[in-house]
């Protein structure tokens, strides 16, 4: 007689429910659901499934973060092909790691913002990274581009973020990365209460890398690098 499957622990069950929410989101045409769909021209076969697994492994490794760094949206050179916020294939999906590439092209994708954040955080387990919009908004008919998400898409993302804080990380302090993320976080409610934003950091893009590094190091009590 087949043994019934063991019940999932609450944290693992929360991860699966989070991923299910991401996957089933009905998004506008100009927002690519990286956890549901594959673009046959850009993705390897089963790319979306690999991205779901990458995200699952990432979240499982960070169980009790002190901070949640919240950006605005997935970028095409970064999480679009990894499924993990503020990462890129070149740095995350290295040989021997537990993370898989999903891009079809020979060279792994590389993103400047991902590099700044990953180099700063390293293997820290006290920071979880996320985006207000965890999918990929792009210009119409230009899948390899980025676009600011509209209010409708931000609303979908806020619902997921509420779940993330309420179910997985109720004790994490939100840190806005950029002005757009800060504005969106102002509408976030967890269990009916507004969420406090512990800090706002300059976004690393568009010349903000050094200011981001300095502010994030101060927040995380990282000693400045000696030149």
Features:
four-stranded parallel sheet; Uracil-DNA Glycosylase, subunit E; globular; 227 residues
Characterise the protein shown here.
The longest helix is centred in the C-terminal third of the chain and has 18 residues, at 151-168. The protein has helices at residues 10-24, 47-60, 79-82, 89-92, 112-121, 151-168, 179-185, 209-220; strands at 31-32, 67-73, 127-133, 136-137, 173-177, 189-190, 193-194, 197-201. The protein is built from 8 helices and 8 strands. Helix 1 (10-24) packs antiparallel against helix 2, helix 1 runs antiparallel to helix 6 (151-168) and helix 5 (112-121) packs parallel to helix 8. It has a single domain (10-220), classed as Uracil-DNA Glycosylase, subunit E (3-Layer(aba) Sandwich). It is α/β, with parallel strands linked by helices. 39% of the residues are buried. The protein is 37% helix and 14% strand. A 4-stranded parallel beta sheet has the order 3-2-5-8, sandwiched between helices. The mean pLDDT is 94.
What is the secondary structure topology, with strand pairs?
Blueprint: H1 10-24, E1 31-32, H2 47-60, E2 67-73, H3 79-82, H4 89-92, H5 112-121, E3 127-133, E4 136-137, H6 151-168, E5 173-177, H7 179-185, E6 189-190, E7 193-194, E8 197-201, H8 209-220
Parallel strand pairs: 2-3, 2-5, 5-8
Antiparallel strand pairs: 1-4, 6-7
Helix pairs in contact: 1-2, 1-6, 5-8
